[in-house]
Amino acid sequence: MLVATTHSHPANTLAVRLPDDDLPTVHRVAIEHTFETAHRLPHLDGKCTSLHGHSWRVTVSVTAPHLSSDVTVVEFGALKAAVRHWIDTHLDHGTMLGFDDPFVETLTTTLGCKVFRFGADHTASEPETLATDLAWPTVEAVAVLLRRMSQHVLAGLPCADNARVGRVFVRETQLNTADYGPGDTA
Ligand SMILES: [Zn+2]
């Protein structure tokens, strides 16, 4: 019966069934944000030992196997607002340092500057707990931090079933990037 119906409506059949429909597919949306933040990598030899800053750019993707009833993966505005708020509050115009970096004491206690500590111990603030296993603020570590943060953000938003944060892409300079996410193509 199904075969007879299909043959009687070839145009409709072509519209809804394509040759690769049996292959795994996924919907993906992405948002971007930029932030101005300093960091220092004293464990590496070279110029990153000096305190310096970058204009960072992050792209957060969210994937879902099927769209929600409102035909979205997640509402762009809500995701963007929450991700941007976290970054602007905790990283923008601040400094990312390793927990043992002597600049932590100078910048926080002495100068009252905004500092986000990677690899912090039990004194970690609530946002810093997302990076206690990441000793230094490399671009790779920043990608991990921002993916974890985005996962928390997404968990609090209405979204499609089984939606998840895909790859998080971070640009440190025009030449240096890192991305972190699922090992598949998501
Ligand atoms: Zn750098």
Please tell me about this protein's structure.
The chain has one domain: Tetrahydropterin Synthase, Chain A. Helix content is 29%, strand content 25%. The protein contains five helices and six strands; from the N terminus they run ααββαβαβαββ. It has helices spanning 2-8, 10-16, 76-90, 103-110, 139-155; strands at residues 27-39, 52-64, 95-98, 115-118, 164-171, 177-180. β5 and β6 (177-180) form a beta hairpin. The two termini are 38 Å apart. Mean pLDDT is 91; it is low at 1-8. Bound molecules: zinc ion. Zinc ion (ZN) binds at residues 39, 48, 52, 54, 172.
Name a few traits of the molecule.
disordered N terminus; 5 helices; alpha/beta; elongated; 186 residues; binds zinc ion
Beta-strand residue fraction: 15-25%
The radius of gyration computed from the alpha-carbon positions, rounded to a whole number of angstroms, is: 22 Å
Helix/sheet category: alpha/beta
The average pLDDT score comes to 91
Q: Can you list the ligands bound to this structure? A: zinc ion
Total strands? 6
User: What is the first-to-last residue Cα distance?
Assistant: 38 Å
Shape: elongated
Largest sheet: 6 strands, mixed
Number of domains: 1
CATH homologous superfamily title: 6-pyruvoyl tetrahydropterin synthase/QueD
Q: Provide a count of the helices.
A: 5
CATH class: Alpha Beta
CATH topology label: Tetrahydropterin Synthase, Chain A
Strand order of the largest sheet: 4-3-1-2-5-6
CATH architecture: 2-Layer Sandwich
Give the proportion of residues in helices: 25-40%
Helix/strand order, N-terminal first: HHEEHEHEHEE
Low-confidence stretches: 1-8
